[in-house]
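Annex B. Sample input.
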Amino acid sequence: MTESNGSDARDQLVHNEDMPDWEKRFRAPRVSLPDWAQDAPQRSLFVSNATGTYELYAWDRHTGDRRQVTDRPNGTTDGVLSPDGAWIWWFDDKDGDEFGVWRRQPFEGGADDLAVPGLDASYPAGLALARDGRTAIVGRSTDEDGTTIHLARAGEDPVEIYRHRESAGVGDLSHDGSLIAIEHTEHGDAMHSALRVVRPDGTAVAELDDTEGGKKELGLEVLGFAPVDGDTRLLIGHQRRGRWEPLVWDVATGEETDLALDLPGDVSAEWYPDGTGLLVVHSFEARSELFRYDLAGHALKKVPTPPGTVSGATARPDGSVEYLWSSAAEPSAVRSTTGEVVLDPPGMKSPGSVPVEDVWVDGPGGRIHALVQKPAGATGPLPTVFDIHGGPTWHDSDAFAAGPAAWVDHGYAVVRVNYRGSTGYGRAWTDALKHRVGLIELEDIAAVREWAVESGLADPSRLVLTGGSWGGYLTLLGLGVQPQAWTLGIAAVPVADYVTAYHDEMEALKAMDRTLLGGTPEEVPDRFEASSPLTYVDEVTAPVYISAGVNDPRCPIRQIENYVKRLQARGATHEVYRYDAGHGSLVVDERIKQVRLELEFAERHLG
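Annex B, continued. Sample output.
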């Protein structure tokens, strides 16, 4: 057994020529897709790791000046630029615990003021800023109050306009500030939101709540109000045909305009700045593409992008589209349909990696899509890493990821599985994991594991199960439920003791767990027991590595300690690494250290 507390300072800067490629990928400067101010489009806000920590940056496109906005030891990524471009709002929590307050800073720089005096610290539940420069709609979540939403005007006390025990959030604010869209789960299903539109005084204007067979099973999401004064059209996402699609809902008249786009995968959209068209993002089988949809002519025209994944896109006032793109082989870049690279941060460039291969495997719930990478020219059987994504409502895609590339650099094949519960393969696939949580996902992972061994790709004596967050949870659960299947396990920020995790986690995740498992641990104890890694800890035979953030509100530290104590009591082979942050780290050196520790753990136990 080995334990450490994050104070080890082994990581140090080295000359670029001496740095391995896997480390360069983490250390190379990255940027997010820039947000821009609606009424001052020359002003933008983005996130970058240029200083070695992910922080917010302001960018004046007219002058080219870029300025670091935040500077905190554990980084900052949650920020919003006001529509007039005058203010940058950013969320101030403590060391990654996600519990804090909004502060704001002038775009040109200056003091960080408390943005909404009178609102105590909370978990964030959405934020919308008005064009008048003095009004905000602030969502909050606490264990005591559930969700509350407040109207905040400069110089006045905030006014509560919404409250409910179940999870909810601010969706959007209309262009003229007269309408507020709220996503809520008052029906008790945290996976499928309903929508309510209210006035600034909290009075209801419209409600939309999809049902199927008398049960709340279809989700709705706010995509944004039309960017035109007096326009009451709200763009929303729905699941009425078994996948995510957009429609336009006029909240004043109740009229719904179903776009019925002939695209096979999930479809999302946002408005073009003049309100005449929609920028459509189509995601299908782990890849994505862009289109423009003309609302008057009902014409769908493709926006050219390279094959791969578009992680975000926005239409600019001049009609151009900026998008964040990458593939498994090529690092991310912010591109424009003008042909330009929008943001090219200075410093070393990230090395590429190998492309992914698509594999489809028949599983107990249908065909399972997996993405496979292996060292160039390598033939099996290879030591193989099953890198399981988090969420669970997420999916792996043909996008650049430094973690899998690091394993490939060290001679491993990497398999990523879009198990039942993953998004992007239809509503039925995403919703399939209810009640038998964790066990269903493991059935799909087992089917892909069997393919990997029988195909000759994977060496069955050198199989690593790993993942972070929900992927970390499935790692620990898999080591106990399928002990003969895995040679070792590496779990980052996992759920380890489901009951204790439920009682300690943030309120929004409690609601999600009640939805997934059908109640609280007291109401459905058998389900929590069946889905908890702690239940099977005595069956674990493989060496286990666990990393955990001591301030994590999503997978809290106490439930991990409970699992570790059971390993200790058995004398089981394990290592634990604790670090001073929340649900992952925004510090590049810390990320590199964690990957190095994982690689070294695998090397010690696999050879």
